[in-house]
Design a protein that fits this description.
two-stranded antiparallel ribbon, 15 helices, elongated, mainly alpha, single chain
């Protein structure tokens, strides 16, 4: 080899070393870039939420900044905005999770629909009047003074928001209604003793912890059994679907019409149970008649398999998710702004008894807070409800959505306080456990027909269709919601009262 060749070889080796170093540096830079982007995303969402909370406080300052209780109202508005964000992050997943899990909606589509319909429900049909003490849990006249009442409501608002935030962080969908109830109860006890609590009402709420998910699960499982028996297990699935899908969608139309008449639109028009059921029956018959030609047209050319049936349930599932969101916005916005409205009323009038109207600016805080919470933090719980408890398809998700509306109607008829969160998640559990039972039953029958031994216990555990870890986490969170929110609220009230005193 000549000297020139040697020099060129050395230069090539040196260039290769430089390139290796450059590649490593670029690799480090790329990793740093990805880490920075991730950190940026993790900081942006809380940053936007914080800005919204500050803006809510500034909005309150515009209306009450010059009054004697202005600082209390500003703090309450900030806490109300924080609570609304947490409701959006946690509670709305129950309406959108099944549709997303069934792939009837993308995550972006679900968030868009939920934001529009939650806001519309809150602003159009949101509660005009709420009790000064949420859900009649404590007697307002037992409070020693107006200031004590306002600090108690402040503690209830902050404690319920903190608890829902913690539940969202661990991935547990909990009842925001029960969180507020626990917060009000804890602050009431700290302010005026155990005698202040309406214990019969608390007993009914405790009973709803069991009744809500069981009723939701049984109704969802019942409809899934009907769909399997009448459509999925038939030799000609498409012919069966042409008969029964219009009936099922008609039932959904009737049930949701009744649900909206009783719950979602109750502030616009006051209807009795009989009137709401009559409206629901008429609309259900109309939807059934309309769906007959629609399903016949949709089913043309579909192959005779289960996958083809998913097409027929897609649109009804999207509509149900939108209607559930509207009703949720109309009802549960009071969880965020009810205590805030009570504080505003007490600050304005100097009295903490009687009913209070919710000012429009307070409703805006609730509506926009729920929307921000859903957009910024909602996907985590939507995935949990839609994908991680059990596998959902459009038929199963339809059963969950229908059971949510139907259970609320039955509970209203019976006069039972129920949680929409417990009902919806109970419906998901009901569908999953029914699938386990039905799968085991069919497998057992098949093995008996060919005279094969039973499946080993380890194999049976492996084939579970409901994730037991999520099941136990959610049940535990439900059980401790009211006492945890109550204890936290009592501590916060004592601190606020000591600082104010």
């Amino acid at each position: 080899m000549t000297r020139t060749d040697t020099n060129e070889a050395n230069r090539s080796d040196e260039d290769a070393r430089h390139l290796d170093t450059l590649d490593r540096d670029l690799g480090r830079f790329s990793t740093l870039e990805r880490s920075t982007a991730y950190a940026g995303r993790s900081i942006i969402a809380p940053g936007i939420a914080f800005v919204f909370i500050v803006l809510a406080g500034l909005l309150a300052a515009v209306f009450f900044g010059q009054t004697g209780n202005g600082l209390i109202v500003v703090m309450a508005a900030a806490f109300g905005a924080y609570m609304a964000i947490n409701i959006g992050a946690n509670d709305v997943a129950n309406n959108m999770g099944p549709a997303v899990g069934a792939n009837a909606l993308t995550m972006g589509g679900a968030i868009t629909i939920a934001i529009v319909f939650e806001s519309a429900g809150a602003l159009i049909a949101g509660g005009d009047v709420v009790s000064t003490i949420a859900k009649g849990i404590v007697a307002p006249e037992a409070m020693a003074s107006n200031a004590t009442f306002m600090w108690a409501m402040m503690a209830a608002l902050l404690s319920s928001a903190l608890w829902v935030n913690l539940a969202t962080w661990v991935g547990a969908p909990v009842s925001t209604t029960h969180s507020v109830v626990g917060g009000v109860m804890g602050a009431g006890i700290a302010a005026a003793g155990f005698a202040v609590v309406n214990w019969p009402t608390m007993g009914a709420i405790a009973a709803s912890w069991v009744i809500s998910p069981l009723l939701g699960g049984l109704i969802a499982a019942g409809f899934l059994w009907f769909i399997k028996a009448r459509i999925i297990y038939r030799d000609d699935k498409i012919a069966a679907a042409r008969v029964w899908v219009p009936v099922l969608v008609g039932i959904m139309g009737g049930v949701f019409s009744t649900y909206l008449a009783l719950k979602g639109l109750k502030q616009l028009v006051n209807l009795s149970m009989g009137q709401a059921l009559m409206i629901g029956a008429l609309i259900g018959l109309l939807v059934w008649a309309i769906m007959i030609p629609v399903v016949r047209r949709q089913s043309k050319g579909l192959s005779n398999r289960n996958k083809s049936l998913k097409v027929l349930f897609g649109i009804p599932l999207i509509v149900s998710a939108a209607l559930l969101s509207f009703a949720h916005g109309a009802n549960d916005v009071a969880n965020a702004v009810g205590p805030l409205a009570a504080i505003v009323h007490a600050a304005q009038s100097g009295s903490h008894e009687g009913a209070v109207g919710i000012p429009f600016w307070v409703m805006l805080i609730g509506a926009f807070g729920i929307s921000f919470g859903l957009f910024l933090f909602g996907p985590k719980l939507i995935r949990m409800v839609g994908n991680q408890i059990t596998k959902l398809n459009p038929m199963r998700a339809y059963c969950v959505a229908l059971s949510a509306a139907m259970t609320v109607i039955v509970a209203s008829w019976l006069g039972l306080p129920v949680s929409s969160t417990h009902i919806a998640v109970g419906g998901v559990f009901g569908v999953g456990f029914f699938r386990e039972w039905d799968s085991a039953r069919r497998m057992r029958k098949a093995r008996q027909s060919i005279d094969k031994p039973e499946i080993a216990p380890d194999e049976r555990r492996r084939r579970k269709l409901v994730r037991r870890s999520h099941f136990m986490t959610i049940i535990a969170a439900w059980i401790v919601t009211v006492p945890a929110a109550a204890i936290l609220s009592a501590v916060i009230f004592l601190i606020l009262n000591a600082v104010a005193g």
